[in-house]
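Action item from last week, closing it out:
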Amino acid sequence: MIPSDEQQQTQPGNLRDPFPPADFDAWAISYDQDVLRGGFPFDGYSKVLEFTLRLAEVRPGQSVLDLGIGTGNLSVLFAGQGCRLYGTDFSLPMLEQAQRKLPQAVLFQADLRQPWPEALDGPFDRIVSAYVFHHFDLTEKVTLLTRLSTFLAPGGRMVIADLAFDTKLALQAARQAAGSAWEDEFYWIAEEALPELARAGLNAVFYPVSSYAGVFVVPKR
């Protein structure tokens, strides 16, 4: 099921939304093919998702909330482990693709930047995400993860896979390697993000995985 929250698609102050759902709606049909083509930004895509599953260390029956579920590729791996699945995305066509793969999942059309359904307040054993948080600047990342941590069950953790680099120098090298394919967004730089997360009480660990992506593990506060 996919309840809709009919949320506003603009940022505070009527500024243009830099990441409107409409930009992702048309991508839903071709997304699964596009992510497997390699190169920037999806080099090592399958490896990143599999590593996310491994770091989540789930058991059958545990509840997993997938933020920005897209077409459901990450959640499919958790379904294979017998988890109870919940997911959000702000693109309805993306959610429809995910629901076809995961008819047992409870999905919501919701924007992480906006208030969302009370059903998503948890508690969840795991909160996961893949290739979503680079749409938010570092302050927004920390604010979101701090809030999300309160939705974790005791002993829970967040496992966030995204476009991320150990250092600024690593990001610069990746930009050069990607050439004209590179697009500037709010990519994680672990040497900057980890201290900010720690100041917020989130003791995260970063694992680089592919040329452009890595995984953060964030235990419950």
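Closing note: The longest helix spans residues 45-56.
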